[in-house]
C-alpha cells in the first residue's frame, strides 16, 4: 500500500493528494507526492511517500519503506543529479531483502520535488548549501524519527558530494556511507579547467540561469539507448528508467545551468579536506566513468581515516544501473563492508 502526505515544516501530519503551491513561486513546477510505475518497473510494495516543506518553503518529495522482518537500520539513498526515486526501485528491493529500511527523497529542483526556475527542464541551483541543509533537516527532524536506527547512507555522484559535506559537519549523522561514482572531480574528458573558467565568467556576468551547451533537454534516459551513452552498458536497466520517464515526464530535468555547474565545482572544492570524516566509508567507482573522475575518488579515499575503495571493471557512471555482472561485484563489496562493521 502506498500512502501520500505533505508535511509542512514541523507541523502535524496531514494528508493530501495535491500539495499547495508556495505563493511566491506560483510559476514553478510544484512537488508531487506520489510514485510512478511502468510496465517494466513497479514501485516496491509498502511505500509511504509524500512532500516535505523545507524551512525556506521549497517542497521536496520523499518515500520510505520498511522490511518485512526486523530491520538492520535505515539506508538513506541519496541520488545524483537529475535522478528521481523511481530510478532506484530495483536497489530499494535489494536493500529491503537485506533487512534494511529505506528512505530517500528527490533533491530540490529535480524529480518530483519543486523546481527552482521557471523552465522545469533546466537543472539550476546557485550553491549546494541548500542541499546540505535539506539533508541535515530531513534526517535529524522528527519527520523520520520512527525509522529504525542506525542510519546508513548509499549516495551516488552529486548525492555523495552533499553527503561528504554533511558528514564533515555532523560526524554522528550516519553510521556508515557507501558512495558510488562520488562527485569529487569531473572526469578529464569534460575538461574541468575549461568548465571552471566558463562557468565562473558566465556566472559573474549574471548568466547563471543559462543552460550549458550540449546535453538533452529531457535528460539522458529520455533518448533511445546508445552503446556510447554516459550512464550504463545495460540496455535493460536504461530502458526501465526510460519507461518511467515516458510515463511521468514531469520527473525529468535535462541540461544543468551555468549556475549549477559553477556551484558543483565549488562543492567539489569543498570536500577536499577529508580528515573530518571518521565514519566507515566504502567508495565504489567504475573504470569507464566519463562523468566523474575515478582517479580523484580513489585518491580522496586514501585520505579518509576509515575507508576502503573498489574500482569496478567495465563500469560506467551509473553503478546501480549497470549490467548484472558489474552489480554483482558491487553487492559483494557492499555486503562485505556491512558484515565487517559493528554498527
TrEMBL record:
Signal peptide: none annotated. Residues 70-324 form the Serine aminopeptidase S33 domain. Residues 28-43 have a biased composition (Polar residues). InterPro entries: AB_hydrolase_fold, Hydrolase_4, MAG_DAG_Lipase. Transmembrane segments: none annotated. It comes from the Bacteria. This is Lysophospholipase. The lineage of its organism: Bacteria, Pseudomonadati, Pseudomonadota, Alphaproteobacteria, Hyphomicrobiales. The gene is pldB.
